[in-house]
Amino acid sequence: MTLVHRVLYTRPIISMQDHIARGGGKGIGAANRMEPSAIIDRVLESGLRGRGGAGFPAGRKWQTVAANRTPEAPATVIVNAAEGEPGTFKDRTILRRNPYLVVEGAIIAARAVGADLVVFAMKRSFGGEVDRIRSAIEEAEDVGWSEGLQLEVFEGPDEYLYGEESALLETIDGRWPFPRIVPTFRRGLQTAAAVDEPAPPALVNNTETLANVSRIVARGPAWFRTVGTEQSPGTMVCTVTGRTRRHGVGEVRMGTPLREVIDAIGGGPQRGRTIKAVLSGVANGIITESMLDAPVSYEGLADVGSGLGSGAFIVFDDSVDMASVAAGVARFLAIESCGQCSPCKLDGLTLTQRLTKVCGSEAVSHDYDVIRRRLGTVAERSRCYLATQQEQVISSIIEHFEHEMAAHVSGAAPPVEPELIAELVDIRGGTALLDERHRHKQPDWSYNKNDSGTVPVELYSGARPPWQA
Fold first, then answer.
1. Interatomic CA distance for residues 275 and 431, integer angstroms
2. Bridge partners of 248?
3. Band of the pLDDT at 104, cuts 50, 70, 90?
4. How many Å apart are CA 235 and CA 6, to the nearest integer?
5. What integer best gives the mean pLDDT of the chain?
6. Is residue 426 part of a domain?
């Protein structure tokens, strides 16, 4: 069977008693008998990599945070449950099935890095998942898991950048989600620091990453490595949406061919159609049909010029004009840019405008030249990865589907609407529900009829965020 169930349980775990009956709590029990450094060593040896996008080794991250804490400034653990990558619904699915697994992993992480506070950072729009976590925290406190540790839930905004780890900390600290330059392992939450003391370091881990921790600690690194690849051990919870027979979330062994993942979770392409391309979220190069046998692993997808990211696979079949996909990606990223880095916002908006003209078959060769030039400047002086996403994703679509772009510029292709690229609200009955509001979101992050012409960082800096009211 392609699908496995290490992290993604087959049925919802409805109580702490149910979780313990299924083997839960063994990770915390093992961690309480170990020195913090031994816990970190176990995670290091397992080869667990962050499941939130970049795939950074979790153990090395824990090691760095532990080394930067002091007795006067204990670390903070932040559970990044602010899922917002287009095409992904894995973290919310994990929390719906078994939030206790994530709470257990976060408490173990806190013991390992010397933290006295754990914050579960979620979006306020994730009402059901927020309730599940709050309930799981209360039950964890009742059974004594969190002794000496404060557990909190933070409900933040829907903005895409809220999921960027330094912007996440800014938001929890009462500001807008504008990324920092200082790394989180050096400066964490200011609100967690004593008056006139430097902010303690923060460990920021994704929901799925922490869901793996309990069993690694209880069963050992060798058990974790019994599936997956040498560089990408374990499993990955993937989301498949787009032009497939159904949409859904499933857990697969790392190294499973992408084509097999799409078949197992999405049922393959719609009847009478063939797959043309797949987006791995909006952070990695396009995957063409000829690459579909690439292994779903960090190294496997990197080898074909893409990346695993958060395991979000948006499938496009042979009915889709890839110029519309390029325009949709450009618009999403340009709208969600905060404007701290001018090229990111301004070049991103120019790319959106010109690619929309291409879709409308109104572009001329000069527009195509502008697109190529702006792709070369959009990521200049960027402080987060968003601008690089514009450069990499759009460039890869143009590289692989230049004939479709050229057909629009020459007037040979009929006009098409830009594809809606947006976050998922839910998956119901095998159908993904996209955030349709994004069609009307302005570059200043408002939903007003007209854009103010001011970038978010200028418009909102110093202003009290509405989610803090």
1. 18
2. 240
3. very high
4. 8
5. 95
6. no
Is residue 387 a contact partner of residue 374, using CB atoms and an 8 Å limit?
Answer: no
Q: Give the CA angle between residues 348, 353, 356 to the nearest 5°.
A: 120
Q: Which of 265, 285, 317 is the last residue of a domain?
A: 317
pLDDT of residue 103: 98
Are residues 311 and 362 located together in one domain of the fold?
no
pLDDT tens-digit readout, 384-411:
999 999 999 999 999 999 999 999 988 8
For the cut 70, the answer to whether the pLDDT of residue 433 exceeds it is yes
- CATH number of the domain where residue 296 is located: 3.10.20.600
Residue 177, both tokens: 């989600």
136 & 272 share domain: no
For every residue of the chain, which 3-state class applies, written as one string?
Answer: CCEECCCCCCCCCCCHHHHHHCCCCHHHHHHHCCCHHHHHHHHHHHCCECCCCCCCEHHHHHHHHHHHCECCECEEEEEECCCCCCCCCHHHHHHHHCHHHHHHHHHHHHHHHCEEEEEEEEECCCHHHHHHHHHHHHHHHHCCCCCCCEEEEEEECCCHHHHCHHHHHHHHCCCCCCCCCCCCCCCCCHHHCCCCCCCCCEEEEEHHHHHCHHHHHHHCHHHHCCCECCCCECEEEEEEEECECCCEEEEEECCCEHHHHHHHHHCCECCCCCEEEEEECCCCCCEEHHHCCCECCHHHHHCCCCCCCCCEEEEEECCCCHHHHHHHHHHHHHHHCCCCCHHHHHHHHHHHHHHHHHHCCCCCHHHHHHHHHHHHHCCCCCCCCHHHHHHHHHHHHHHHCHHHHHHHHHCCCCCCCCCCCCCEEEEECCEEEECHHHHHCCCCCCCCCCCCCCCHHHHHCCCCCHHHC
Question: How big is the CA angle at 3 (ends 289 and 15), to the nearest 5 degrees?
Answer: 135
* Model confidence pLDDT, tens digit, residues 204-259: 999 999 999 999 999 999 999 999 999 999 999 999 999 999 999 999 999 999 99
Domain that residue 163 falls in: 3-224
The answer to whether 409 and 368 have CB atoms below 8 angstroms apart is yes
Domain count across the chain: 3
Say if residue 71's pLDDT is above 70: yes
User: Which residues partner with 287 through β-bridges?
Assistant: 278
**1: confidence class by pLDDT, cuts 50, 70, 90:** low
pLDDT of residue 2 exceeding 70? yes
Residues 382 and 388 sit within 8 Å (Cβ to Cβ): yes
On whether residue 189 sits in a domain, the answer given is yes
The domain that contains 455 carries what CATH number? 1.20.1440.230
Residue 99 sits in the same domain as residue 125: yes
